[in-house]
Amino acid sequence: MPSGRQGSIHLFRFSGIDVFLHWSWFLVAMYEIRGSAGRYSSISWNILEYLGLFLIVTLHEFGHSLACRQVGGRADRIVLWPLGGVAYVDPPPRPGATLWSIAAGPLVNVVLFPVLWIVMNASRSAAAPDLFQLLYTLCWKIDLGLLIFNILPIYPLDGGQILRSLLWFVLGRGRSLMVAAVLGLIGVAGFIGLALWRRDIWLGAIAVFVLMNCWGGLQQARSLIRLGKLPRRDGFACPRCKASPPIGEYWRCGKCGQPFDTFVTHAACPSCSTQFAETKCLDCGGLAPVNEWMTATLVPSHQ
User: How confident is the model at residue 38 (pLDDT cuts 50, 70, 90)?
Assistant: First the structure.
């Protein structure tokens, strides 16, 4: 998955969110535009169709980002690349917040569909067949197609992440991710079989993308489950996610590499005496001074 800065071009910034375009997008764009030549009277319409595809993708990703911010999460970057778009969102580690951050993307496509349908029918004219064909493709093949594809219950697609968020309410954070990742691996087998049957290189690329994310999800799920079983320290809680920290030497000094319990040493390394201004939450990754942990409201951590 592209990082957002390496090999990417900064397009614009809107509402505090930077949008990048990966360099490989141009190569695939030329290939796809040439491959679809003949559908319109001029190749200019093919270019407009491809740009329309990524306009819809961008709006979809902004749906994720703005919803994440609405629930108190962090979202400041979107990367467009040949397989679509990636919104780098970090919602609070709560199932409801995660569910809304993920579901908002497909909801953008739901809202766009009737708008495109109305404009498409308004453009139905023998004098403008190319315009009608463009809007028909954007409405039925791109917007609706992306919606159906994205809500497939295959992790890390939106549908798989929505399923994971719903399971989170019942199974907890780690086990819900484990189930979603395992189901995603089943989806990988389906993508591979379909790619071989249709001899479709893009389905093969999607299968590899899903496989990598599912494998990473399994590793993360194991870590979350182990973390959830650790005994927790009373009197402290993360200001962001309100989870109490585990007891033990799970923090490591960035200077000498010595592991230590930051809440015992008051955020100072016992080996080299380096004082740390902020302490990282092992549950959500948030950073805050130790004194803010002491004043946070305690709630149990469920993984």
Answer: confident
Count of structural domains, the chain: 3
Nearest to 23 by CA among 82, 105, 69: 82
Is position 61 annotated as part of the catalytic site? yes
Same domain, 131 and 44: yes
Tell me which residue range forms the domain holding 207.
173-229
What is the pTM for the complete model shown?
0.85
Average pLDDT score over the chain: 90
**Are 205 and 104 in the same domain?**
no
The active-site residue, picked from 32, 61, 249, 278, is: 61
Same domain? For 224 and 242 the reply is no
pLDDT in tens, 101-157: 999 999 999 999 999 999 999 888 767 888 999 999 999 999 999 999 999 999 999
Whether residue 113 sits in one domain with residue 17: yes
Residue in this structure with the two tokens 């108190």, named with its chain if needed: 72
- DSSP H stretches of helix in the chain: 24-35, 43-70, 95-122, 129-136, 144-150, 158-171, 173-198, 201-228, 290-295
> Do residue 49 and residue 125 come from a single domain?
yes
Q: How far apart are CA 102 and CA 161, in angstroms?
A: 7
How far is the CA of 77 from the CAs of 68, 149, 186, in angstroms? 12, 23, 30
